[in-house]
Design a protein that fits this description.
alpha/beta; two-stranded antiparallel sheet
Length: 196
């Protein structure tokens, strides 16, 4: 009987140890999971927030006195960069340069020269187009001039102008494919009629 009592006491003690051990293990896992979760969230938040730089770099070329790369503050405008580049030359086409445009890091600003432009009257449309040779200059053309290109209507002409104002002058005619609504087939139809 004493032996049975000892066995029963042993089994009860063993059961209490198993329950206590399970409870402790469960409690440890939850605590570790909470610490890991909060560390993960903090790490993800740190990763998602890009560092804000106090300076950006902008390249300016064309009709300015000192073209080159300049360091500026993130809230600078085109006129600030033009001033850093020694101002506009006498040949600069001031009407084609948006001096109030805000700039972004890595931006290329190209100040165009006043180009000899021929005005041609189109008998079919009754409009006057600014052309360089027989091609429409996508960096200088206004909405009505862009509208004369094959496959380009008023809405697409507006998107081309918005893209140009946001990203700066087109560095090549192929860059026109970056404008929403201009795919390869539309570009192929107009590529012989445009220049930058």
């Amino acid at each position: 009987m004493v032996e049975q009592r000892n066995k029963l006491l042993f089994i009860v003690m063993l059961a209490i140890l198993i329950v206590a051990g399970s409870f402790y293990s469960f409690w440890q896992k939850n605590t570790v999971a909470e610490v890991v979760s909060s560390d993960d969230v903090a790490a993800k938040n740190d990763f998602r927030q890009p560092e804000q730089s106090d300076e950006i770099f902008v390249y300016i070329s064309g009709a300015v006195n000192k073209p080159g790369v300049f360091k500026a503050s993130p809230n600078a405008r085109v006129f600030d960069i033009v001033a850093m580049a020694g101002g506009l030359t006498d040949e600069a086409d001031r009407a084609k340069t948006n001096l109030a445009q805000s700039i972004k890091d890595g931006m290329h600003i190209h100040v165009v020269d006043k180009l000899p432009v021929s005005n041609e009257h189109s008998a079919t449309t009754g409009t006057t187009k600014t052309k360089v040779g027989n091609k429409v200059n996508i960096n200088h053309a206004d909405k009505s001039e862009l509208d004369t290109l094959p496959g380009v209507g008023p809405a697409l002409a507006e998107r081309i102008i918005e893209y140009r104002q946001t990203n700066g002058s087109f560095t090549s005619i192929d860059e026109l494919k970056n404008v929403p609504g201009i795919g390869s087939s539309k570009f192929e139809k107009m590529k012989e009629k445009i220049t930058n």
